[in-house]
Amino acid sequence: MNVSNQKYATHLISVRTPFVSDSIFPLCRFFLFSDLGDCILMAKACSNGVFELSVKQEEPTLVPPAEDTEKGLYFLSNLDQNIAVIVRTIYCFKSEAKGNERAAEIIKDALSKVLVHYYPLAGRLTISSEGKLIVDCTGEGAVFVEAEANCAVEEIGDITKPDPVTLGKLVYDIPGARNILETPPLVAQVTKFKCGGFVLGLCMNHCIFDGLGAMEFVNSWGETARGLPLKVPPFLDRSILRARNPPKIEFPHHEFAEIEDVSNTMKLYEEEMLYRSFCFDPEKLDQLKMIAMEDGVLPKCTTFEALSAFVWRARSKALGMKPEQQTKLLFAVDGRSRFQPPIPTGYCGNGIVLTNSLCSAGELLENPLSFAVGLVQEAVKMVTDSFMRSAIDYFEITRARPSLAATLLVTTWSRLSFHTTDFGWGEPILSGPVALPEKEVILFLSHGKERKSINVLLGLPASAMKVFEELMQF
């Protein structure tokens, strides 16, 4: 489907099917919830007690780069291939003095200018002769939509919990798209609210950016809107992460390993899914690290190591995993500084590599927290230049994708400064590239004015969530 050939009438958004799938690269959408710092948007109830946000979208338009850019096929590395999912994010802005009358115009104009630097975003995904994702740099442009909401920004609702029905109206979905090849790499929607505020909603494909790359792009877009030069110009050459010739697998890559579900947790997932947010303030995080080190096994541990180990153990127990059940923890490590030589500043592709810890549920739960933290520390140390090159080569040979069976995948956005994006209206009152694309994913988000607290967001079957909530009290 070519977006430029479609005619879409102005319409009111209706509730959409959460997932649209296809046999090749299914369109796995990231549902939105977000860390708000101290700004929690309160829900507005209708007469029946349920808030209903109405958003009127105008016809989408294409925004090409403001100048001629390179054409042809743009290489995506094997690290890009593994994360080909749509990430949907929102940025809420409000300025009593400035209002929102020219917001869409300014943001749209800045988009055309910043696309000169980030021209692959103006192209379209396709499949290469090797059967891999690649960008055809056609220059046709990003999709841009203007919209109006029937309320004030404050009335959207409490988005610390997932609400795809409401928040999904603030991002534009390509009608009829069955897979990621039918969705442009960048789709933007600016929704004006009655209070004078507005929301920028983005759909971006993770194969184009990882979290750091996406943050640098959006911040560069904001700098362009304010007439400033880019602080971090993009480094676009992804061939620096090509597989070696011949490929050389030097490590066992358990991140791709399939695990048998001997605990029959799939049966548990037939229950109603509940989504919760748990806030760990600095005091609680310090307490968690003290518990991890109290037996003297570990000389030190980081906040991430302690929190990841803690939620891995708690989730495994909540799901009732049998002692003999193998369980895996997956998390991403930024490889930019770990590659030799280091990846250049501004590299906008995926520079993250998945690492893993693997053990039986019995070992995980019967041992003290220090045992799990030690496994996390070993997984972090494992990420060297050799390991990352081996992972790239492993995909080159096997085309395998990470398995999530009996697995917890921790995604952390707590160190990314999306909250600093400024298009001329100041920093967003809330923001977040926030998602739970799969039931195995848990998200860490920074929280609070100084962003020293961490919100842990996850979904579990109802009975498991009850146990998990109890385990969060310590």
Automatic annotation (TrEMBL):
The keyword Acyltransferase applies. It comes from the Eukaryota. InterPro entries: CAT-like_dom_sf, Plant_Fungal_Acyltransferase. This is Omega-hydroxypalmitate O-feruloyl transferase. Gene3D superfamilies: Chloramphenicol acetyltransferase-like domain (3.30.559.10). Belongs to the plant acyltransferase family. GO terms for molecular function: acyltransferase activity, transferring groups other than amino-acyl groups. Pfam families: Transferase. The keyword Cell membrane does not apply. It comes from Vitis vinifera. Keywords: Acyltransferase, Transferase.
